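hey so i finally got around to running both of the ones u sent me last week. sorry it took forever, my laptop kept dying halfway thru and i had to restart like 3 times lol. anyway pasting them below in the order u listed, first the sequence line then the structure token line for each. didnt double check formatting much so if smth looks off just lmk and ill redo it

first one:
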Amino acid sequence: MSHDRTHSVRTSRRTPPTGRARRAALITATALVTAPLAGAPATVWAADNETPKTPFYKTDQQVVEYLDSVATLKDKAAIQGYPVTGQDTKEITLEQVKKTGYSPEQAVQDAQTMLEGFDSTPGFENYGTEERANNKEDKDSGWLGNWDAKSICGQPSDVLEKQTRKLACGFVGKIDQKYPVMKTTDRVPGGTKVTYVTEASIGTEVKEVKGWKVGGKLTFSASPDNKGGAFEVGGEYNQSTETTKKWASMDQERREFAVPDGMAGGTFQAHANAGWYTGYIVQKIDNTDGKAEKIVAIPARVLIQAPHDDVPLTWVGRES
């Protein structure tokens, strides 16, 4: 569906789709054209002999419902290892995370089912869960000699002072914002056609400990055709433990957008096929000398890719 999804664009690192995949894509495209979302305003489609037009929606909820149908996000997500990219730069507090209804106790339970290395150590005394007040409090002077969580989480045992220790670490969180907007075009009146030149690239992934799910950097540009330089935006993201496809870079493409006649005006938005998750960086610490263990829960907010989608962006129209 070249009108809104970018997966029709040639990618630099993709193998040709199988016949089965092509048939599935055709079925999906046909279903969306013939059966718009329930409760959504009439989606604007072109005549049979024209290029399909980008669908228009009036409310954020309608946009989210549409994007959920093409790039589904899980209610909870987990990252094995420290989320080295894609963290919110704003300081998030324990109180803010708890207000979402997600407790450190629930996070530990989720870590035990969604991540590796969080089971109890036989014969060790369990000191429970230690809660940190905000995401800046990530050092442990008593058990780890003031190592910070980012430096020590998931590292091989030879990095640590005690050769027998290897620390399990990860992120678990609940969705709090779906499909953040990467770009909004200028508002244009009904009956207007505009052409944008768009391109998206995926930066080199961070190489970390084997088995970690890491992310990368998405850089996206869009500019009105022949009207100066591109408006470029970017952001870092992570891949969850359930991610089955990587986002792929997209070649430059000229995209024509049309605001239907009779509409007062409209804009076009490029949404990242990802979600912000609020939760905790959880770290299991074993004190082998004293045969004790504890879990540290550090508040965090992380951007995570839709797990089963290799397209970084989806375009929609907004009536205004």
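and the second one:
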Amino acid sequence: MGISSRTGLAGVMACMATAAAVAPAAAEVPVVPIGPPLYVLNTVLPFDAPTLQTGMPLPIPGAPNGPRYVKGKILPTNMVPAIPFDSALPNTHISTPLPNPMTSGNLGTPELASPGSELRAATPSADLGAPIGRPQPGRLPGLTTPSADVSAPVVKGDPDAVALL
């Protein structure tokens, strides 16, 4: 191993360390903040309109686990692969003053708060089985029962909410 190959190896290792340090910061999923104007309900409701602060998640598609050939099968497995999505459930806060029916004041302000959390999802996938078996030397392939498998979509998250008065 010469000096140039050691220098190249050191450069590759430095690049890998930098990529590992930057990866957690780049893994954050974006959320678009939303603050709907609910104050227009004040003309219709007999009490003050609620306030809502939330966001809209932006799903980011991942790389699908494409079809792969398995020894002993004619058709590849995972013919229609599931596509993974990463997203985030945004922080949500809803509050409204609760009027007191006996006086002109308020009893308090009930609130519902939900902290943000990660959300992972995957689309359904499909797999097909061939209606014929593998060809054998000297004879025709035999017929087999065709098969079709469809997987269910997957949603994984950890939503949480707290009600306050």
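quick thing i noticed on the 2nd:
The first strand starts at residue 31 and ends at 34.
anyway thats it, ttyl
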